[in-house]
Amino acid sequence: MTEFIHPTAIVESGARLGAGTRVWHQAHVRAGASIGENCVLGKNVFVDSGVRIGSGVKIQNNVSVYRGVEIADDVFVGPSAVFTNDLRPRAFSQDWTVTPTYVRRGASIGANATIVCGVEIDEYALVAAGAVVTRSVAAHQLVAGNPARPLGWVCHCARTVARTPDPPADLVCADCRADGA
User: Fold this and answer.
1) Fewer CB atoms near the end CB (10 Å): N or C, the chain?
2) Angle at 14 (CA atoms; ends 85, 117), nearest 5 degrees
3) Alpha carbon distance 85, 64 (integer Å)
4) Which N-terminal stretch is annotated as signal sequence (predicted)?
């Protein structure tokens, strides 16, 4: 399966798109970006130079993924989520440093969430819509609010399995267990 690039999208020479990846209306992928197989980049998505995106990733409309952000396989990024890459932004500063951000396998980021650079969102974590993430999020952790605070723990399918400060011994929900997970 070959990739699909909508006629209004811009994929610069030197950008790498994996097989089966779809780039929709008015998206822009810069040279030096690497996107895995079977990804979906929605309308008006911007992927900066040097960004690495794994396979099976869905990035919904109006998301900008700036240099310094690395997104692993099977991640979902909801509409209008925001990634930053500069901890001390000034319009007049020519001397700034990219602060890396990592989104690990299977994590989900809700619509309109803001991810402040320098954090790691670990495997299968769930960031609620509108959350402002200023600290790293543990594997399977559910966070919400401004600033984002832990609310509980989720199964790999994103169903809440506990509303406790510490992760439960078993992070598999009843529905997944019924399916043999």
Assistant:
1) N
2) 10
3) 11
4) none
